[in-house]
Design brief:
This protein is mainly alpha-helical and 109 residues long. The protein is built from two helices and no strands.
Length: 109
């Protein structure tokens, strides 16, 4: 079958292999880009500043929670120590009274 004039198989293969030139697309913004930037930039700054304040508040709450947890643990240890001291003093008094009773009964013999 005869080929159409001006299109040889080599030319068709070259046309398929060569990339088509890219067209640059420009977008139109309504409102324009400068107005959008003027509106978004202050809002973005406000949001970031608010996030900093929230982070500071969260950090403060975490620090308070850690401090309270530490204070609770220390109070528990203090209670154990005081209870142990009280029990030792009470036991010493009981032992002293028993020794006095035994000493009194020995004196009667």
């Amino acid at each position: 079958m005869p080929q159409p004039t001006g299109t040889s198989p080599e030319r068709r293969a070259a046309a398929r292999a060569a990339p088509a030139p890219e067209k640059k697309v420009e977008y139109e913004f309504l409102p324009n880009a400068a107005d959008i930037l003027q509106e978004i930039l202050p809002e973005s700054f406000k949001v970031r500043l608010f996030k900093c304040f929230l982070d500071a508040a969260v950090s403060e709450q975490i620090a308070r929670r850690v401090a309270m947890s530490s204070a609770t643990e220390n109070a528990g240890e203090m209670i154990k120590d005081l209870t142990r001291q009280y029990n030792r003093a009470r036991q010493a008094n009981i032992t002293k009274e028993i020794m006095e009773v035994i000493g009194g009964s020995e004196a009667l013999k």
